[in-house]
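User: Please predict structures.

Assistant: First:
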Amino acid sequence: MATTNSRSCLQYLLHLAHDNLDFRLPEIKALLALRGKQFQPIENFKEKSPFWCLDGLSEEDVRGIMARSVCAKSAFELWGHGHTHSELRTSLLNYPSENMSPFMEKHSTYRINVYTFNKTLEFTDRIKKIDALDYLPFEGSVSLKSPQHVFCLLEDYGTDPNDIPDHPYYIYFGRWIGDGQRELIRSHSVKNRHFIGNTSMDAGLSFIMANHAKVKENDVVFDPFVGTGSLLVACSQFGAYVCGSDIDYNTIHGKGRSSRKNQKWRGPDENIRANLRQYGTEDMYLDVMVSDASKPVWREAALFDAIITDPPYGIRESTRRTGSHKDTTKPPDGFYVESHVPVSQAYHLSDIFTDLLNFSAHRLVMGGRLVYWLPVYRPDYSEEMVPLHPCLRLISNSEQTLSSHTSRRLITMEKIKEPEEQDSLALGADPSLSPYQGHNAFREKYFSGVNKRSGKEENKPEVNGE
C-alpha cells in the first residue's frame, strides 16, 4: 500500500455541491477548526466556484473533512491544473515524481474518471480525454471495478447553464481521497422519518448546522426550541449527547394528530426518542422536557458544548411564552393542580433572540457555539439587524432565500468570555447590542408580501380571451 509520510508540498482539491452556496465556506472552516487547521486557499480563490484548491493540509485532515461535510462531494490530491489541456500537461509533468510514484507502481491497479461541471460529455469524448493523458507514467494495470487508486480529470465549464462554453474554463487532475457525506441527506430525509411536524428541519440543513457548531463526539448539545428533534438527530449522528426543550406539550410527548397520511393520531413510535432510535443513535439521547425558553430553569453553570436551534417565526408555529397581562391570583406555595394549563402570551422575536443570546452566554462552555436561524424581510435587511452579545463573537452569517422578499440567515456565534456584571450594563448602553425591534414585524411583513404577490396573480390578464 502506498504511503504518504515522506511526500511534501501537497495541495488538495475540494469538489463542492452547487447548492446552499452561502453555507459551504463556514462549514469547511468549522471542520478544519476541529482539527486545529486554518482555511488556506491558493491564489485566485472564488467562493462560488464548485472547485476549491487548499494548501497547508495533510491527507488525514482532508479525510477528516470528508467524514463530516455535507457540502463537499469529493476531495482529491491535486497533481496538476491549468486553463487548457496544454497547461495541464505542463503542470503534471512538473509535479514531483516522488509524489506520483507510490501510486503508479507496476503491481498496482488504477482507474481514471472524467467529471465535467455544467456540461455533459459523450462516452467517446470521455475516453479520448483519458487517452490524451498517456504522457503520465502509469505502470500498473487498469481495473474498472476495484482499483487500488482512483484518479480524476475534472473540467469546469462555469456556472451558467444557459451559456456553456465549447472548452472548459479550468481543468484539474488529481488522486481521489474520499467522498463527503451527501448520502446522509438521503438516508435521513424527513420524508421517511417516523416523527415530523410543520417545521421539521431539512436533513441537509440540520447536518450543516451541526458542522457549523463544530459538534463532535461526546459533546452535549441543547436545542431550546426542539420541536420534533431534527437537529438532535443530526448532532447524535456525529456522536454528541443531545437534549432539548419546547413549550409545546403535545410535541414533546408525541401526542395529538399524526403527520402521517391516513392516520389520525400519533402512534407510539412518533416521538423524538423514536427518531433517534430509527437511525441507531438512541444511546445519545439524554432527554427532552416541556419548558418555556423565556424562563430560567437551568442551574448557573456552563452546561453545553453547543446550542443549536430554529426559533419559531410566527408563520407556521406561534411564538408564545407563559404569562399573562391580566391580573391573576397566584396559588399558594406548594399548591399544585395536576390539570393546570399555564396561560400564554405573545413572545416577540426580539425578545426570543435576546433571551437566546443571554442563555447561550451563560450556559455554553468557553469556545462553545450557538447556531440559530434569524428570519428577515429582505428589503429591510442590514447587518445591524443581527443580534450581538459581549460574550459571543459572530463567526458566520449565511443566507437561505425563502422568497423574493423573505429569507432566513444562519447565524453562528462562539463564546469568547464569561459573563460579567458590566455586560448587563453594556447591553443597555451600547446601541449595537440593543434588541432590534424590527424583528417583531416579520410576520406582518411576510404575509403582506404574500398578499401582494397573490393580488398580482389575480390581476394578470387572462389569455385566449377567456
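Second:
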Amino acid sequence: MKLVPNLYRKTRVSESKLKKKMTSPKNDRAIDLGSPLLNDIADAFLKSATIGVTKVAAEDTYYAVKRGSFSSQDFEYTLKSMCKEGAYYGTVAGVFVTTEYGLESVRGRRDWKNTMIAGAMTGAVMSAVNKNNKDKILADAIVAGTIAGAALFLRNLATGSLRK
C-alpha cells in the first residue's frame, strides 16, 4: 500500500496540464474600464500601489515593535506614508505600462526592446520628478531599463516562452 504518490513519474497528461496552467492567460483584473490599455494601467497601478502600501506598513510595524510603543501620531504618519508610497509605486507602474503600450503601437512589435526602453524612460522620468541631477537621471534610466529587461527575461524563462 502506497501512501505517497510517485511524483517523479512523467506522464503526458500531467506535463500538459502543468504547461497549460503556466501559459494560459488569466483574467484577474480588478477593474474593467472597457479599454485594454486602461485595464492594464489600472491593473498595474493597483498591484504596484498595494506593494508600496504593504512595504510601508511592514517597515513602520517593525519600527513600532522595536521601539515598544505606537502612538496615534505614529499611526497617522504611517497612514500618510502608506498613501504617498502607494501613489508613487502605482504611478511608476502606470508610466511604465503606458510607455510600453505606446512603443508597441509605434513599433508594431511586442518584444524585449519595448520593455527595456519603457523601463529606461520610466526610470528617467521618475528620477527627473525627484529633481535629481543629469548623471543620476541617466544612471536611474539605465538601471530601470536593465531591471525591466531582466524581469521580462525571467518571466519568459519561467513560462517557457523564450524566443530566439
